[in-house]
Specification:
This is GNAT family N-acetyltransferase. It comes from Pseudorhodobacter turbinis. The protein is α+β, with helices and mostly antiparallel strands. The protein has six helices and twelve strands. It folds into two domains: 113 residues, Aminopeptidase (3-Layer(aba) Sandwich); 158 residues, Aminopeptidase (3-Layer(aba) Sandwich). Strands 1, 2, 3, 4, 5, 6, 7, 8, 9, 10, 11 and 12 form a twelve-stranded mixed beta sheet that branches. It is globular, with a radius of gyration of 20 Å. The mean pLDDT is 93.
């Protein structure tokens, strides 16, 4: 058994025994943690930690639903603005329960917003290494198949990376197809048409059927400069589509994209954390 759900009065948590490694050491993860009271939360957390200890693991990370392809991170700081589409929900009681149990923050992230009138003012230097074009809106399964191949290569060096199978990836992302807006999805292709990078943007449908903000959700690249060109194309397209705000979503504080977001003048409105605990022997 690689995972187990634990429940108490109004609380639930899932322990995963095959989580990503933490600093090169096998680790377990705790995800889907909800609790109405701190006492009930502490109860299920203690049960989950006992299960992990019995399995022989001593490092625990969370919140994480098995891997970073699925939901992970707690909101740690907020200006109170509404959640955007696909953002981790605020869970202050569960966060405090884990902190009280000794979990400390081991990775930091943020989301920022910027008026689109401040973005895409200067085009990146021209390059012959790749060309950025929008998705044509056809064959979404082929789209996600390409995204899977590049993602596994681009993210493999990231902390807490764990491989995922192609079928599992497609099963997770194909339900998103009705939300896709082709004008906000871009590819960077080399002269031989091989994929050098991609960017996924989406309207912030959490605002309703006519959102005013567009989310720069995910981008990855294998060529130097491709990320900058993709972000420029996204901001320019979002302006043309009539959005007034860009949300730079869920950025790791140490990533180059954090510097690019700051350079655009984006202001942080939410911070997130991934937490870890080393169990005593």
């Amino acid at each position: 058994m690689t995972q187990q759900v634990f429940r108490a009065d109004g609380a639930k948590i899932t322990a995963y025994l095959d989580a990503p490694e933490w600093e090169g050491v096998p680790a377990a993860a705790l995800g889907a943690f909800t609790c109405k009271t701190a006492a009930a939360g502490a109860d299920v957390l203690a049960q989950a930690l006992a299960f992990i200890r019995e399995a022989g693991l001593r490092r625990v990370i969370g919140p994480m639903e098995g891997d970073t392809w699925h939901s992970y991170r707690f909101v740690t700081q907020s200006d109170g603005s509404p959640e955007f589409l696909m953002e981790p929900a605020q869970n202050p009681v569960a966060l405090k329960v884990m902190q009280d149990a000794g979990f400390a923050q081991i990775s930091s992230y943020f989301s920022a917003r910027v008026p689109l009138t401040q973005t895409a003012l200067t085009a990146p230097p021209t390059t012959a290494a790749f060309e950025v074009t929008p998705w044509d809106g056809t064959n979404p399964e082929a789209l996600f198949d390409q995204v899977f191949t590049l993602s596994t290569a681009a993210f493999s060096r990231n902390a807490f990376y764990k491989p995922i199978g192609r079928d599992a990836f497609l099963a997770m992302y194909m339900p998103m197809v009705p939300l896709l807006k082709r004008e906000l999805i871009f590819f960077a292709r080399r002269p031989d048409q091989s994929l050098a990078g991609f960017l996924f943007g989406t309207p912030n449908y959490a605002e309703g059927p006519k959102p005013r903000s567009a989310i720069l959700k995910t981008y990855a690249s294998l060529e130097k400069g491709a990320g900058q060109h993709l972000a420029y194309a996204f901001h320019k397209a979002a302006v043309a589509e009539g959005y007034d705000t860009a949300i730079h979503a869920l950025i790791h504080e140490d990533n180059l994209s954090a510097l690019r977001s700051a350079a655009e003048g984006a202001e942080v409105f939410r911070r997130y954390g991934l937490f870890g605990l080393v169990l005593d022997d």
